[in-house]
Amino acid sequence: MSWITKCNLNWLQLLTLRIIKTGNVPRHVAFIMDGNRRYANKQNVAKKEVYSKGYASLKRKFANTLVCICVIYFICDRFKKLFEMLGWCVYLGIKEVTVYAFSIDNFKRSKEEVDELMNLNRQKLNSLLQNMDSLMVAGVCIRVIGNLSLIPEDINRLIAQIMIKTKDNNKGFLNLAISYTSRDELTHAIKDIATGVKNTEILPEDITEDLISDCLYLSSSPDLLIRTSGEVRLSDFLMWQLSNACLYFTDTLWPDISIWNLLGAVFYYQKCYSDLQKLKNNSKTIAPNSRTSKYIAKFYCEREITIENMYQSTA
Predict the structure, then answer these.
(1) Is residue 245 within 8 Å of 221, Cβ to Cβ?
(2) Nearest residue to 273 (alpha-carbon basis) of 26, 104, 16, 68
(3) Residue 265 contacts by C-beta under 8 Å, 6 or more apart in sequence?
(4) Which of 28, 100, 205, 248 has the most CB atoms at less than 10 Å from its CB?
(5) Which residues contact 295 (CB under 8 A, 6 or more apart)?
(6) Rounded distance, CA 189 to CA 195, Å?
(7) Is the pLDDT of residue 88 over 70?
């Protein structure tokens, strides 16, 4: 199976896509993949269907929650839909995609639910590694953002392997937000900056919005956010980075999303483009070879060393 699904579109979809491409296309799109449980309920998926997929060992007392989780990942399979969406994005010319895969708030669930979610994420990451050849051919760089200290070590090793092996790919970028919330991201950025000040690597007057942006898990800002299922909120996702982004909400559930939803969102972005550019044109950048830029370079280097050490531990 190719992880970047080929675009098998009809003539009308291709024509519409080509028309949309003549306008301004967002470089970076973020997704909140919402509506999987509602989709499962809508389809009236029976427990025996889940058991037939190999999950008969799930305990009866967790059926209502864990069976639903299994439906989300394996029957609805939001990652299958994600890579179908990636195929459309590549065809449209969208360079970078960021998705909300697992929130820190999910750790508040019962231990049994959290363990099952971790097992499912473990399987998906292993599957990515098994399909590494397809990722390399497609030229996709996969980056995982979030508080990795909260994730089991074996999953961190899988993450490190994927990130290291795809780090030089540059045809497309997929950012997976795992163990992530914006509040946690900002908290860690502030702590890192405070450490830099304490070590006299930077001074208090060096602290700016741009410095904070560069110290976040994700330093690039999406041009467009798409959230499915009709929910009109950010759910603690990229709240800093989305300050000047176009926000698009659709009632469509994630497993039902189609090329038309993506094209509709991009068309909406194009209508908002001129106003968005005015906001972005007012932003400043950190001067090269300054004290701050040297601190940022060292900061990124330390992050890369951390991932490299995780990767080396797999040997």
Answers:
(1) yes
(2) 26
(3) 29, 224, 226, 248, 250
(4) 100
(5) 196, 201, 202, 206
(6) 10
(7) yes
Q: Give me the phi and psi of 281, to 5 degrees please.
A: -70, -20
pLDDT in tens, 123-138: 889 988 988 888 898 8
Give the chain as a DSSP string: --SS------HHHHHHHHHHHTS---SEEEEE---HHHHHHHTT--HHHHIIIIITTS-GGGIIIIIHHHIIIIIS-HHHHHHHHHHHHHHHT--EEEEEEEEGGGGGS-HHHHHHHHHHHHHHHHHHHHTHHHHHHHTEEEEEES-GGGS-HHHHHHHHHHHHHHTT--SEEEEEEEEE-HHHHHHHHHHHHHHHHHTTSS-GGG--HHHHHHTSS--S--SEEEE-TT--S-TTSSTTGGGGSEEEE-SS-GGG--HHHHHHHHHHHHHHHHHHHHHHHT---PPTTSHHHHHHHHHHHHHHHHHHHHHHTT-
Query: Residue 295 is which amino acid?
Result: Y
- Dump the DSSP string for 232-257: -S-TTSSTTGGGGSEEEE-SS-GGG-
Closest CA to 87 of 191, 204, 9: 9
How long is the chain? Answer: 315
Amino acid at 100: Y
